[in-house]
Amino acid sequence: MNELMHYGWNTTWELEWEKEERSTHTAGRIIADFGQKYRVYTASGEIWGEMSGKMKHALLNGSTYPAVGDWVELQLLEGEDRCIIHGILDRKTCISRQKAGAKSAQEQIIAANVDILFLVTSLNDDYNPRRMERYLIMAWNSGVTPVILLSKADLCDDPEVKAAEMELIAPGVPVHAVSAIENRGKEEVTGYLKDGVTVALTGSSGCGKSTIVNWLADSTEQRTQGIREDDSRGRHTTTHRELFLLPSGGLMVDTPGMRELQLYDDDGGGWEQVFSDIEAIGEGCRFADCRHENEAGCAVLAALETGEIDEKRLQNYRKTQRELQFQVKKEERSQRKVNRKDRSAKEPVRRKSSFWNSRPHDE
């Protein structure tokens, strides 16, 4: 397993592996996701992988697809450049969002077993602190350590001011203004890229994620495209999720840009952590169930009047709260539907009695 250590394998994963008898199988890590096929790194090098029939059947019962960053149990096929994926080791962290366009609550996994998440936003007209609050909720819920990267600092006259603004909405979260063109901030960012540590990047389309990968890797591994001049929005460059081994020994996951981030759940308490300042002020409200809208004795509304709380931040606080509550309701409705189907499948089929059989017998 020594060859896997550069890809994050350690004693924790070793203990996880030894929980079950896997003598005929080997471990590997998903490094690229192409839909039904995966690129997997093993002790023998890279290989193509596909799910076993049992895994595909389990998807019908709610199991999840393998994701980039997953450690998986593999069966190597002798004489072939492919393997069969038989299982996924328990994830330590999982970055996910609500699947776009889904009528019911459906999780879309972006990457698994990530240690640090770079939240990237560019310092052009697309700069948006409210969007960053949403990304922070996702990060905290995923169990990863967030770091904010303000890319394209060469396009901004006051990157230090923007960095200070981000620090206000993300207390304790490191913020770095970076520029690949000016080679600005590289030393600070590479400090996170240590041997065996997995770092992922996420952000809106065209924010500079692929450029950052190339910059940190000193290569042109990822293609890049410019932004549209009319609205400062980017074009999609990365079309699939992929994990790279960097010269520093760290691992980096680049992901396709998001037009919109729909939050999936709040199991990790990310929403409360992101808006901890508003929550703390809310403890001074007259009523314990205060919604901070128009109630008498609301400490949050009083803080809004004095300027202690920014109005747009409070609006995002309410919006994301409603969104997460709605996702919970969608999940509950979805589960009730599944339960009804299960009950219907278990109920015996009752044959309808004929008219003559239903009549009383003649004496």
TrEMBL record:
Its main location: cytoplasm. It comes from the Bacteria. GTP binds at S151, K152, A153, D154, G203, S204, S205, G206, C207, G208, K209, S210, T211. Residues 325-363 are annotated as: Disordered. Keywords: Cytoplasm, GTP-binding, Hydrolase, Metal-binding, Nucleotide-binding, Ribosome biogenesis, RNA-binding, rRNA-binding, Zinc. Its cofactor is Zn(2+). CDD domains: YjeQ_EngC. Residues 112-259 form the EngC GTPase domain. It is an enzyme of class 3 (hydrolase). Monomer. Associates with 30S ribosomal subunit, binds 16S rRNA. Belongs to the TRAFAC class YlqF/YawG GTPase family. RsgA subfamily. This is Small ribosomal subunit biogenesis GTPase RsgA.
